[in-house]
Amino acid sequence: MKARQRRSASKSYSFSKIFTSIGLSLGLLSTSPVYAAANPAVSFTDIGQNFSWAMPAIQALVSANIVSGRDSSHFAPQAPVTRAEFAKLLVLALKLPLVKPDNPTFSDVPQSFWGYSYIETAYKNGLIFGVGDRRFAPGDPVKREDVVTMIGRALLKDSLDSLNVSNIQTFSDYQSIDPYARGGVAAATQLHIVNGYVDKTFRPQGLTNRAEASQIIYQTMNVSTDQIHSLEIPKITISQLPAQLKIGDKQSFTATVAYPDGTTSNAPIHWSVAGGTGTIDTQGMFTATNSGTGTVQADVYLPNGRQVSASVPVQVAAPISKLVLNPDVIEMTSGESQAITVTAFDANGNSVNPPAVTWSVTGNIGTVSNNGTFQATQAGQGTITATLAQAGQAPVTASLPVVVLTPYHLSILPETTSAYYPGQNIPVKVQLLDDKNQPVNTDSSRSITLTVTMPDGGTYTRTAIDANGIATFSLSHTLAGNYSVTASGEHLIQSQADSFTVLPGAPAALNVFATPSPWVTPNQSVALKAVAVDTWGNVLPNIHLPVQVSLSDSQHGAFAAVNGTTGSDSSIGSFVAGQTKGDTTVNVTATSDGQPITGSTTLHVYTAQGAGLVSGKGVWMMWSDWKNHNVDDTLAKLKQAGVTHIYLEVATTSDGFYGKDALNDFLPKAHDQGFVVIGWIYAQLKDPYADAAQTIQVAQYATPRGDKVDGIAADLEDATYLSATNLDTYSKSLRSNLGDNYPLIAVTYPESWRPNLPWTTFAQYYDVIAPMDYWHYNEKSYSYDTVYNQIKPEVDNIRKATGNPYIAVTMIGQSYNMFNDAGQEPTGTEITAAMQAAKDSGSVGYSTYRMFTATPDEWNAFANFKW
Question: Which residue positions does the secretion signal occupy (predicted)?
Fold first, then answer.
């Protein structure tokens, strides 16, 4: 699913490079037309008297290979131009580099469409947008208002939206011009690319024929830079932002006036100052005369009568009259360091930028660096002083008192007992020692912190106050294993680590589980194990006790070899699944010190191979989702939401099989909670044999307890290498090594996005196809119906593409934000619509990507949906 992480979208587009290329290729950087002459060799017999006005334009564009005739003698000037044809015409005229993205922007413009690259190129460069609902309507005739809007976007870029449209309000049909097109109409008419009709109408909904389109493009190509600049509002930039100034300082300012295409204006700059802080000359040299905050402004008057302005604040500080040091007192031990900051205030009480001061220390206690860091070297008392020298004024100083203490060391006193049982009191005492390692016997009331590191890697702290140089802590633990402790405190030297051990208690129950998984297909055999645990859940792997085993029913399978004992290194027997789908409970009993101890586990017999595993609701988790969240809390949240299966990312082509630690920790706990866990693999297929070898390694990997993933989700989305040959090579290798019955799920794009994928090869090798159908790919609001109608057809699309009307499909939905803009994640309403559409379409399940990127609104909708 790397593509999902790569994809992003933005509403802002930059056309500086494009516009420069337009100017160079179409003569827009010249003030005179470049296509005034026609090619006399071009001759069409159907132009006639009615279209003679368009002949120079047609000849020029034919010569430039921008348009062509229907044949050598016919141009078809009256034929209407479609939206796709005009997009191509405009892209060719602008000489824009063609793009061909993997994912179509518009649902009705697939990669196979003849105009795909031209439409995508026009969209990428901001010349066109769709007609709504991810459609472009490429075959519809192009309207006059759309033609001029595309032209306006090409010539004026971002300036189009701010264009004055008063000149077109004289058209009698002005109100019928769509608001989005009014800037384009204004630009095209002011640049004399198009005109209104003699009846004072513009006819925005009117259609454009081939002769008109040629004339419009011809006129566009002859628009000069000066004409464009006459409509644009340039931006003035003051290049030198001032630092804080003092009275008498001088600061030089410069300003640049630039149009959107990057060209600059030589119009003179008029400088002025507001706020009474100083004066500025005609060259932009500012002289500070009074303290306070003011403004320097640059004004430019353009030839078209417009004025543009820009300003920057300027602050002039009064002389500094006061320094304040932080902290205002220091107490520390020799060997420690402390940063000191300086705040300066002027005579008006205003805070000003920190000045450069000189530091001094009295008392022979340490040194201060130029940046204000005090290093304590020996015990004693003294003073640190900061001095600011100002020209023509008395120095300003500030001081703070310093006490440097003799450092005390911390030592954890040894106890006679280092091994404890769960719940037993564990005393820890910390002794203060002086610099000669002698006990400090006076009560100094110091706060001492004890840091405890637990067997599972977790840590916590306890705090106590010393009494006569000793701090006493009382601990109690039930988790068996080795603990380490260290002591620390302010101005104290940290102790070395000490340790103690908590021993497990007596056997109290049995932890019963199946390996490699509690999910079993008919006739499949799994091993059963029982490990003794104490009252607190500590595992006793080496306790061997004879067991008795019983099943809650016999219709789902049978138990064999009732001759085992407890212990992680031994099996109590095996379970062979029957033909009936459902759950059965294995009950195990043993006796310890004359007392019975029991445990049980549930085995799940499922049918339909992979489809039976991924029915219902699922979630996708990356390695970081496992690593950064408590596993027990995660599983509890999933259980509450009704989730049945989890896809856990453990390997990619570039990163290798990196997820063993995740499987070791997550997989057994998930199995014990009744979850299916599918190993999620990203296979690039550049080397299908290497990808297959890695996928097989994941499928066959066993955790220390013996658990294996319940199936493989092969993420096959890299369009560069996803050919039928590579897919067949990879998939055939999986089947030959893992067997025909091993659950394989193919993760790929929806058929509506990628109709040309090797769908029949997917159907040949995979039990389930999981399309990543993400709908929220534009920064806008989505209705319930919009989402529902996108998701609903996908199951049928895939079944038709594969030629298998019964192949299982499970939908992957979106619960992450494709954009950098907050508030552009799918809503709970969208989640509900997607899930209902998947259910109504016959999808065996619905999983969300990703669990930990879902907002509360998204997660609640997902959790509350009943599958």
Answer: 1-36
